[in-house]
Amino acid sequence: MTRSLAANPIVENFVAFARDLDISMDVLLEGTQLDTINPSSAASLTDLETIIANAYRASDCPHLAILFGKRLNIYSHGTAAIASLTCESLDQSIDILIQYLSQNSPLFTLKRSDTRQHIFLEVHFKEDISPLVKKFTIETGIASTATIVKSLFRGQSVVECFKLDYQPDYPSEWITRETGIEVRTKQPTNGILYYKTESSKENPYKDSITHQKMLALLKQENHDQRKALSYAQRIEKYISSFPEDLPTLEAIATELCASTRTVSRKLKQENTSYKAILEKAKRQKAERLLIDLRVSQVSEILGYSSPANFSAAFKLWTNKTPTQFKKDQLKNR
Predict the structure, then answer these.
(1) Residues of the chain under the 70 pLDDT cut
(2) For residues 120 and 192, is the Cβ–Cβ distance under 8 A?
(3) 217, 85: one domain
(4) Are residues 110 and 153 in the same domain?
(5) Whose CA is closest to 168, among 194, 143, 193?
(6) What is the model's pLDDT at position 58?
(7) Are 114 and 195 in the same domain?
(8) Residue 192 phi/psi, 5° resolution?
């Protein structure tokens, strides 16, 4: 499924950023079909990857994403960010970002986990996001979050560190120096580690009237986006927001405010089915998990009764056994 980035304000900001670096639109948009007058009007994920690659090549700057992220403020991130800015506390702000970005971001979902001392906001990228787009998104997010946190909390330390599951193409100490927040590389996952003691403190920018208006606007934006999607696309989008267990047909019907019978009927009208959509999601998840997990572990996560049954299903999807697929992927790393 091709996902559009047309409504994403970050794309528009990046095009403006590239212009400020004296990267011409012809160079930036090379390899895309985008209009040089309004290049973000119909940008897809493929277009975004091409634009980012062109910008890195033209600027010859390995930390381009950090520079871009430092340029962004709270208003660059759209309605969800303003709703987050005006709520009562950091704790509530995190929950708003999880709810709306996980539903609407074409790139990733967010998952929150709490310990006695910390809140960890973990980033899960969707299966078809390329390594380049992941890297750019993470590093932009680091710099942008650091800038916003410093602004909102007036230099107060609310973030302990950023975690990356890779090593950037330049020293991570440089990111720490530029953002003022520690960066830990080669971690199991990507995310932000917040101090829990700071999360319940009152937000100095809270504004209940603006906050409620932004929540209402977010609800309307979400409604408008859903109306523009087919029924199957709405379900695929909902399933993609689950980093772990996949939702049942009953859960999907509840999300869509419909009966399971209605969901099945509407999917049939679009020449597909819940089973076909679920099989596609399972395949994508299996391909991602097999990189780091054993076949038996992936089989269990996806709910198969045995590794043999999973292997049979996987061979139908890809014409390869899970072991063959895993070897090919590791060879190409």
Answers:
(1) 1-10, 34-43, 73-78, 102-104, 128, 151-156, 221-228, 243-244, 331-333
(2) yes
(3) yes
(4) yes
(5) 143
(6) 94
(7) yes
(8) -120, 130
